[in-house]
Amino acid sequence: MTNNTDHPIALYGFLRPRPERADEVRSILSAFVEPTRQEPGNLQYHLHEHEDGRFFLYEVWRSQEDLDRHNATPPLRAFLENLPAFLEGAPEGYFDTMLSPYPEAEPATA
C-alpha cells in the first residue's frame, strides 16, 4: 500500500499481555504516549485497555516517513524486539492509509 501526503497513515491493533507481565506492559505502553505525541508527524496516539485485558493502540501519522522514524526510536525497538516475552500470541495489528481527510489544526487564538 502506498501513501501520499494527502492521506495520513493509521496504525491500530490489540496486544494481549502475558498475565504475569500485564502491569509491566501497561507501564511500558503508557510511557510511550506523551513522548510519541511530541514526535514530528504524529497526529494521534492513543492507548486503551480493553475489559478482557488486551491493550488497544491507535496511531495516526502524517506520512510513512514519520512512522518509520518513530519505529526506529530505541525504546520502541527494544520493546518490539522482545515482544514475544511480553505477549500471549502475535499482536493483532492493522496498517492503513486514511481515506477520509484529516482536519487541519485550528490556529491558536489569543
TrEMBL record:
Q: Which domain of life is it from?
A: Bacteria
GO terms (molecular function) for this protein are: monooxygenase activity
Q: Which PROSITE patterns match?
A: ABM (PS51725)
- Please list the residue ranges annotated as the ABM domain: 9-95
**Signal sequence coordinates:** none
Question: Which InterPro entries does this one have?
Answer: ABM_dom, AI-2_Isomerase_LsrG, Dimeric_a/b-barrel
Oxidoreductase as UniProt keyword:
yes
Keywords on record: Monooxygenase, Oxidoreductase
Looking up PANTHER family in the UniProt record yields: ABM DOMAIN-CONTAINING PROTEIN, QUINOL MONOOXYGENASE YGIN-RELATED
- What's the protein name? Antibiotic biosynthesis monooxygenase
